[in-house]
Amino acid sequence: MAARMARQSIFEADSPPSVHFVLEEAPPRRPVGGTMVWRQQLEHLLEVGRLRNVTLQVMPTHSDAHPGVDGKIELLKFPDGTAVGRSDGAFNGRPITDPKRLRILELRYGTIRAQALSPRESLAFVEQLLGGDMTELAWFKSSYSSGTDGESCIEIAHTPGTVHVRDSKNTEGPRLTLTPEAWAEFLRYASVR
What we know:
alpha+beta, four-stranded antiparallel sheet, 36% helix
């Protein structure tokens, strides 16, 4: 968990690195870990994909064969002009620094990006998997909130198969995503307290 948090902190740094990802279409469609875990992963993809320093693209399954079918391509470029690259399908999978070989990987990666959905289309694809545009949910004050002045109020929104919950005082803050069954169980628990 500490390693994951350290990796995530890279995105929150004052001067975060510019990162570009191309993801095959199939993995985001597969609900590994169950529906709730899958939805949380998709929501995290959207969150990261909307960061100013991140470009997220999805490679449609119906695309022609591309240079990434043999495995991932990784390119790291540093401020001093040096770079290192690696590809599962090239140079025996070993890290390389030779400029000519790096150029081959750059060209392959460029071809992959050209065949993938645009960043905007890719985010729309993930939103569609979640059941719609997450930025335009219809939020409603919950009748289960306490306090007459809205002091402890939550808001809920529904998408197919999901109930979204947020704090009405912090609408840009974290959100809970629950199945309708989990939401009903929460309400049952809250009503007996």
